[in-house]
Amino acid sequence: MSKRIEGGCFCGSVRYKFPFNNYPSANCHCSMCRRLSGAPYVSWMSIPIVEFEYSQGKPTKITSSSHGARYFCEHCGSPLVCILDEDPENIYITICSLDRPQDFEPKGDIYTKDSLPWLKI
Ligand SMILES: [Zn+2]
Ligand SMILES: [Zn+2]
User: pTM above 0.90?
Assistant: First the structure.
């Protein structure tokens, strides 16, 4: 069996998996990520949507802007994934919902002009 990357929400209701590979990733400093996560920025990784699957449960959708939707665990509120209308082939997962986020260092920073002045990047 090929190696898989797995993750899920804090309470364990929602679990997901996808094949091990080298995927694009970045820390996003936009104000939407900040407000919806309660954190200074959110680290995302982009997976081809055909490779991604839920192994347990399904998250709840929030239409976060006119061009995308975010999905959270309805029980514990963990932010899990985001799908952008402009990029429907990919699903963005929160690196910190992975079981081993330490293995997936974000490759860059986006929306840095919106970052908090006290944040050291
Ligand atoms: Zn949960
Ligand atoms: Zn963002």
Answer: yes
